[in-house]
Design goal:
Blueprint: E1 3-5, E2 8-12, H1 14-18, H2 21-37, E3 40-44, H3 50-64, H4 68-72, E4 84-86, E5 103-107, H5 126-153, H6 160-164, E6 171-177, E7 193-196, E8 202-207, E9 213-216, E10 222-224, E11 231-236, H7 238-243, E12 253-255, E13 266-273, E14 280-281, E15 299-300, H8 301-313
Parallel strand pairs: 2-3
Antiparallel strand pairs: 1-2, 3-11, 4-5, 5-6, 6-13, 7-12, 8-11, 8-13, 9-10, 9-12, 14-15
Helix pairs in contact: 2-5, 3-5
Length: 315
């Protein structure tokens, strides 16, 4: 059985990677239950090298320590690209609230099409590009294993979701939440990251030890997703919500200004796993019945992402 932290399940992924068919089905069922009841779970023993994760966090910190004008030379430009540096308060994850008290850097797998958008790398820092490219590859590998478990949980062929993600239209996002000044009081609903759901299929989230992530329960309460060393937080996004006809839930979450940590930098890394942009997201046959027909009509993954990013950043 999966353990729980504050109610959020903790699932050992080792038996899925190394066990027999029975062990894999047990893990897949735990993930199905967690995704149905919470939309969130911690995954341990997922195969992500600890040394590589530490190296990536160090490289992220080094980037955010660069002068602001240097970061702005690789600034985010458009929803079509969705790459580059996002300054503090530039993004509003909750469009009804002020800009988020964070900065970010987005990158993505490079596409073979010569006309495709390219990553915006800061000049003079080749090690940063190398570190992030290696970590991106590791995230793709881990996400594919999670997607295989989800397919098993839904009675689909093992590569059902992996095939729909094989063009790697994903986004890796580095996040930095600066310390808040002494005496700072949030106003008009300011927060480090406003309440939102993720746009894609699944997200892999790596946290430092500062914490601040909060998840909304089905009852409407907010609980902390306390960092657990050696785990990655997995949550299901809006497209998985649609794909599975609400069998897997896309749950609102936020990063709050926790009083005990307001004086500390917080760093996290999110890998947003997104289906191929031309993939048509329509209800999976095993997720609908006569009594529970499909809730949503078809939509392409690319159309959905563009709409959500436009709402987030504004015109």
């Amino acid at each position: 059985m999966a353990d729980k932290v504050g109610g959020i399940p903790v699932i050992d992924f080792g038996p899925f990677l190394e066990g027999d068919t029975t062990a894999q089905r047990t893990v897949a069922e735990q993930m199905r239950q967690a995704s149905r009841e919470w939309g969130f779970f911690y995954l341990e023993n997922c195969g992500m090298p600890a040394e590589q994760l530490a190296e990536t966090f160090a490289a992220s910190k080094a980037f955010f320590d660069l002068p602001t004008d240097e970061k702005n030379r690789v600034a985010w430009q458009s929803a079509e690209s969705n790459r580059g540096y996002v300054g503090i308060k530039r993004e509003r994850l909750d469009p009804s609230r002020p800009g988020d008290l964070k900065e970010a850097f987005n990158l993505a797998p490079e596409q073979p099409d010569p006309d495709a958008h390219k990553n915006l790398w800061p000049k003079g820092h080749p090690q940063f590009e190398e570190t992030m490219t290696r970590f991106l590859d590791e995230c793709i590998h881990t996400a594919d294993r999670v997607l295989q478990a989800f397919a098993l949980a839904l009675g689909q062929p093992a590569d059902f979701f992996v095939d729909a993600h094989n063009l790697h239209h994903h986004t890796l996002r580095l996040l930095h939440y600066p310390p808040l000044p002494e005496g700072f009081e949030p106003h008009d609903g300011e927060s480090r990251a406003g309440a939102h759901t993720d746009y894609g299929s699944i997200t892999l989230l790596f946290q430092d030890d500062v914490g601040g992530l909060e998840v909304r329960t089905r009852a409407g309460d907010w609980i902390r997703a306390t960092p657990i060393p050696g785990t990655v937080v997995v949550n299901t996004g809006d497209l998985m919500h649609r794909w599975t006809n609400h069998v897997f839930c896309s749950t609102p979450h936020r990063v709050n200004v926790a009083p005990e940590h307001r004086h500390r930098d917080r760093y996290s890394i999110a890998f947003f796993c997104h289906p191929n942009k031309d993939a048509v997201i329509t209800c999976i046959d095993t997720c609908a019945t006569e009594d529970n027909p499909p809730i949503y009509g078809p939509i392409t993954a690319g159309q959905h992402l563009h709409e959500q990013l436009t709402n987030t950043y504004g015109p």
